[in-house]
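Sequence and structure are no longer studied apart. To make this concrete, we show below a single chain and its fold as tokens.
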Amino acid sequence: MSIDSLKEALPEYARDIKLNLSTLAGEELLTEQQKWGAFLSCALAGGNEFVIQALHAEASARLGPDALNAAKAAAAIMAMNNVYYKFTGMIENAEYRTMPARLRMNVIANPGVDKLDFELWSLAVSAVNGCQFCVNAHEPILIKGGLSKEQVQTAVRIAAVVTAASCVLNGEAALQGASAIVASAA
């Protein structure tokens, strides 16, 4: 599997998603590690099995084992953090925002790759998961660390397109399943 197999799996109505996948795969604003770590972590956050497998195969050809593991860790830790911090932002009782999270987040301090790359992937996954608090926590670290706003935007563009691919393939699978149910009920 590869990004080409992912593009082939997308239906014609998702042509823009296919074109954006091609554009982003060739993007040069990010390092290869930043780019493919973002692709993989966002695929994991999106949860579609085909997208995950295709982008894992593509990332595996470009990243070392430490970077692959760190991209997976970014998706995992942000899945937890995004739920927790979205809650603290949603709830009217401000006391929750002053309470310590009391959740282990050791991987953020020692991700096994350049910390800026891990922060970039964490921001991209937070965008996928819709956590305003986490996006606003990671972006200043990236800018202070030397990334440009265009580089941050590129990671979020990857997040958007990978999420769209997951959405399309999840929808197609649901429609096929629904068609099978309707056919068997007839």
About this structure: The chain has ten helices and no strands.
